[in-house]
Amino acid sequence: MPADSPFAGRALGDTKARTRTRSSIVAIVRDAGVLPAPGPDDLLRAGDTLVAVGTREGLDALVRIIGGS
Length: 69
Hints:
This protein is α+β, with helices and mostly antiparallel strands. Helices cover 25% and strands 23% of the residues.
């Protein structure tokens, strides 16, 4: 999660990732821990690593959304 992402500091649900890309964020890796099966209210932070599953096209779209392009 880049520091300049429009979703840094916002809830995962704000991304509408599943609806927009048909990809699912299945975990958030943060610092030395892992948040499995994050819910829509879980906050995203700059520096998070998002673990997602989906088609190649869907994952590419997710990267663009999270990156703000």
